[in-house]
User: Which sequence fits this backbone?
């Protein structure tokens, strides 16, 4: 039996390298000794955590799909009962959509990107088919563009390597900036509200998000910081919407209903700035031991 | 309180078991293993016969796991029993249906070893040890060796104490208000090595006499001393891996405590509570003496009837809450997983479970060469430690999901060596042997 010269532990008979530090044992064979019986046999039982077809991940998604479909169908039936008008086509379409989702979950590798992409494609196709009953596209254009936009924002970033995620952010921002004028063009026949309200508001939101990202470079924000920052970003978005709307109708007012939201957002921003710059404020609110 | 006498009715999971079925994952099998290496050969057919005899005495172990509308529960299982060849790594997942013909334990063997792997929803270390001892005693009897008398050896055909199958948590429950309290996140070793679902083992063999000598010098018990060593090693790992001290997190170790003696329970199902012992490294580096002082203070402050009773109340109150009780299992499962991830594994850095020095009856001690105890690690706590003492030696079995990394095990064991305690190591890792 030998000892590891690095760790000082006694090694089991027949051991040629220390299991702790991998140092090779430099000793004559009679010191190393004959290999003793291994701690565990070398048989490696092939273990399936679950049946390959119905893994735990798949089961989770299936349960989720069924739950959502059930909720949607029940809601539709209750609404139909309340308004005394029943159209079987929407529940049937939902069931068809749910069935297609279940097939995807069963046959596609359970990764977020693949499942989300398949779900998007199937939904777009199904909505387009339903909308085509009168041989022309109408509402499905909006819905399908929204789905494509959601895919660009929520799924496409995962197709980028972590070091190239900035590319995904730019792509997402560009997609939103394209989507808004496109809807305006289709709906109104020209560029109206999208240029005067939507895009400037969106620019303000992007600026606020960029500020948050820059702030994250200087120390890790707490959960409270993150939540407050999100509230502030949404509030600034709302305020900007109101501001640009008033400008578009040439109102003499600077802000109308959103002035109270602006005050709240301003308070949050002041708190966040103080919290970031003054240690005493930070320690007081974070209840840290100093 | 329902007692399980006839093996014909369903058995609710005990209070600490309800968390295990929904939180089983690839890297967290919730399986623990107890094994005995014998000096006589193990014949599988004889082992199977011994198992059939012994299981009649443990009807509450002859069950399978089912999923009900509100909760998981246990149902009597009459499927044929089987014994399995041992595997290259311990604590492998036991599938509730196909793993062991629906049983929640798996009896494994090698030419000289009898091992039982238990899904934690069935029992805890103490219950598992009683079952293993009874199984080995029966095997020895069939081999013509008398094991001898021992209160932990239950002989097939003997009267079953109704308390064996009780959920003692329910009996010890005292209604209390506002008993919930949450800990902050603890330090966890990073995933800087490939993770594997075949558990890697470093087994350290240490003389109990040496450990007793050193722990007495610190006026601590062996468990307290080992917990202090684990905390100290984790503190060093954090200091080596986290560059910015502002990002240090507390280092805590979870220590399961057998509370049967405290509450006078004879249950062989789960009746263990976890106390979390730790230091707040954000306050500065702790010297070993400071750590052991903290550990002694926290262990002795935590292991008393009143503190434990508070924990029991917290566990049982959660289950009795009508909102939780009558929520369908389909909603409870993800919620429990979330709670377990957020407030379970994440509040401590590693686990050590010390079964203690196991007294074997005379006849059994003559043929048992070695006793082992293994815990399954989990994804946040990638290394766990199971300790058990027998025949004058303590075996510290580190189980890990790191494929190659052994930094933590090395920190702990070299610290023992540096204090003059000889340590002998063995592994199931591929390196190290020809």
Assistant:
């Amino acid at each position: 039996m030998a000892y590891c010269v690095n760790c000082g532990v006694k090694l089991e008979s027949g051991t040629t390298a220390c299991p702790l530090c991998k140092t090779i044992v430099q000793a004559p064979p009679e010191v190393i000794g004959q290999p003793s019986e291994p701690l565990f046999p070398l048989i490696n039982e092939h273990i399936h955590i679950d049946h390959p077809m119905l893994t735990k991940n798949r089961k989770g998604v299936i349960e989720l799909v069924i739950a959502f479909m059930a909720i949607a169908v029940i809601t539709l039936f209750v609404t139909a009962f309340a308004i005394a008008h029943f159209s079987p086509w929407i529940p049937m379409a939902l069931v068809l959509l749910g069935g297609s989702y279940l097939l995807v979950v069963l046959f596609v590798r359970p990764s977020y990107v693949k499942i989300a992409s398949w779900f998007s494609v199937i939904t777009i196709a199904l909505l387009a088919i339903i909308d085509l009953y009168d041989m022309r596209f109408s509402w499905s254009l909006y819905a399908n563009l929204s789905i494509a936009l959601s895919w660009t924002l929520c799924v496409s970033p995962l197709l980028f390597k972590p070091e190239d995620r900035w590319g995904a952010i730019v792509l997402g921002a560009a997609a939103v900036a394209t989507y808004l004028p496109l809807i305006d063009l289709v709906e109104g026949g020209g560029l109206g509200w999208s240029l005067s309200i939507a895009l400037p508001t969106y620019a303000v939101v992007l600026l606020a998000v960029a500020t948050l990202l820059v702030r994250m470079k200087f120390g890790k924000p707490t959960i409270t910081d993150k939540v407050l920052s999100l509230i502030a970003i949404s509030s600034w978005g709302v305020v900007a919407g109101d501001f640009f709307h008033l400008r578009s109708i040439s109102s003499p007012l600077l802000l109308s209903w959103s002035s109270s939201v602006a005050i709240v957002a301003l308070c949050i921003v002041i708190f966040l700035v103080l919290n970031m710059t003054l240690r005493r404020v930070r320690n007081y609110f974070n209840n840290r031991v100093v | 309180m329902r007692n399980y006498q006839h093996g014909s009715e369903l058995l609710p999971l005990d209070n600490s078991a309800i968390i295990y079925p929904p939180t089983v994952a690839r890297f967290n099998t919730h399986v623990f293993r107890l094994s005995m290496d014998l000096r006589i050969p193990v014949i599988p057919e004889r082992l199977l016969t011994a198992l059939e005899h012994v299981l009649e005495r443990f009807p509450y172990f002859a069950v399978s796991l089912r999923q009900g509308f509100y909760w998981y529960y246990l149902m009597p299982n009459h499927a044929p029993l089987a014994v399995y060849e041992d595997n290259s790594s311990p604590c492998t997942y036991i599938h509730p249906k196909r793993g062991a013909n629906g049983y929640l334990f798996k009896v494994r063997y090698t030419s000289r070893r009898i091992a039982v792997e238990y899904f934690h929803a069935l029992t805890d270390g103490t219950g598992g040890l009683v079952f293993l001892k009874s199984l080995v005693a029966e095997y020895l009897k069939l081999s013509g060796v008398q094991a001898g008398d021992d209160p932990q050896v239950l002989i097939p055909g003997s009267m079953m104490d109704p308390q064996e199958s009780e959920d003692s948590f329910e009996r010890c429950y005292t209604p209390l208000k506002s008993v919930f309290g949450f800990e902050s996140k603890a330090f966890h070793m990073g995933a800087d090595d490939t993770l594997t679902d075949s558990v890697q083992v470093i087994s350290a063999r240490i003389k109990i006499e040496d450990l007793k000598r050193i722990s007495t010098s610190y006026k601590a018990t062996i468990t307290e001393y080992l917990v202090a060593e684990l905390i100290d090693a984790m503190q060093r790992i954090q200091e080596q891996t986290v560059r910015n001290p502002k990002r240090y997190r507390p280092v805590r170790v979870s220590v399961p405590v057998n509370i049967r003696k405290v509450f006078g329970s004879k249950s062989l199902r789960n009746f263990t509570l976890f106390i979390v012992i730790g230091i707040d490294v954000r306050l500065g580096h702790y010297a070993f003496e400071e750590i052991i002082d903290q550990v002694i203070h926290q262990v002795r402050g935590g292991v008393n009837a009143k503190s434990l009773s508070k924990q029991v109340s917290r566990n049982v109150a959660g289950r009795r809450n009508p909102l939780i009780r009558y929520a369908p299992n389909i909603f409870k499962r993800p919620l429990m997983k979330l709670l377990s991830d957020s407030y379970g594994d994440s509040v401590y850095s590693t686990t050590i479970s010390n079964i203690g020095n196991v007294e074997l009856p005379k006849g059994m001690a003559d043929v048992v060469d070695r006793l082992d105890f293994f815990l399954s690690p989990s994804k946040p706590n990638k290394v766990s430690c199971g300790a058990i003492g027998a025949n004058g030696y303590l075996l510290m079995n580190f189980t890990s999901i790191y494929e190659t990394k052994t930094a933590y095990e090395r920190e702990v064991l070299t610290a023992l060596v540096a204090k003059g305690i000889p340590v002998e190591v063995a592994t199931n890792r591929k390196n190290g042997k020809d």
